[in-house]
Each structure stands twice: as C-alpha cells, then as structure tokens.
Fold this protein.
Amino acid sequence: MSYLKRYLIAGLLVWLPLGVTIVVIKFLVDFFDRSLLLLPSHYRPENLGIDIPGLGVVLSFVLILVTGMLAANLLGSKLVRIWEAFLDRIPLVRSLYKAVKQIAEAIFGSGEQTFQNVFLIEYPRKGLWTLAFQTGKNIAEPQRKTGLDNVVNLFVPTTPNPTSGFFIMAERSEIIKLDIEVDEALKMVISGGVVTPETGKKIEADEIGKAEGNAEQNVTLLEKKDG
C-alpha cells in the first residue's frame, strides 16, 4: 500500500500542476477571445467561416498595444486625463478605478510608481518577520512628523492576495534590505512562502557551507590543542 500511495502522489504532482495550467490558459484564451465581439458582426470569424482558436488573444494584444501608443503621446495623455476626470465624478467607480490603477502602477509602472526594493521587517510584532515593498521616497508632512531620521515608505502585502495590505513608515536602520527581485518576492507572498526566491536559496546554501567550514576549522583547532 505504501508503494501505491507513493505512486499516486507522484502522479498527482505531475498531472495536477499541468491540469491547473491548462485550465488557467484556456480561461484566459476564452476571456480574450471575447474581444472579437468588438468587431462588426459581418467581420467576425464565425461569420466568415473561419475558426482560429486564440485569435481574440492576438486582437487583444494589438488593442492594448495601440491603446498604449495613443496614451503615451501628448494628445492621448490629455484624452486619458479627461476620461479619468469624468470617472472621478462617479462615487463608486472613482474609488475602484483609483485603487486598481494605483496597484497596477505599483506593479507594472516605472520609476517612482513601482515597488522599488524588498525589505525584511519585524511585523506585526518583534520576533515575527515578513516581506515589505518600498513604495516611494517622497517625504511629506506625515513622514516628517514621525520624527524618524531616515523614514522609508513600505507596503506590507497580504497572502495570497498581494493587492491588499498595510502601509507603514519605518526607520531605515530597523529594516533589512534584501537582494531579490520584486517579482520573486511577490511569488513568495502569493504562495505563502512555498515558493522561495532563487537568491534566497543560494544565500542559504552559502550560509550552510560557511557554517560547515567553521565547524571543521573548530574541530581542527581542538585536535591541535589536544595534540
């Protein structure tokens, strides 16, 4: 029975991730295929006798690319501001739109709008550690009134949904900067620590190697003293 159980688990570990991946990809393809509804009915593939799976993905990609090109120029950015000003007049839509946009800018943006660095902080109390992301370097009245010499703006995400979390301000000397990429740290947060950054694995291996080396040196010194 132990062999049967082991083989079943091994099989599940092969098929379960593959099955979930296929389901997610199929969902995304079907979702983006709905962009074909933007086309006039007589230009849609089913009415032309054409059935190409994933054609909507290509159309969505082109649509997003063209939108980005328009929004990046002067006229397009002005139109975007007018559109956002219109949305800002609608109470519920205003809150949702701003929240989603800020999260998207933090993750996909550039410069001051992105998660800049990953820090290790003691939160929610001493002795418990978690990951936090630096959200900006701007110093305003809230930061000045903390009385901290070198204040850092941090976002502490929740697991498994990193779009929610807590904003805190911390003293730079009380937090530890990590040498890992933001996307690797996000994977660790989303997985609840199951997925660990590759850099972290290398550091851990190096530390173990150093510890073993120090132990061997200590043993050698003791043998010399005994001799």
Residues 2-33 form the longest helix (32 residues). The beta strands are 118-122, 129-136, 151-157, 165-171, 176-178. The longest strand covers residues 129-136. Residues 28-108 form one domain.
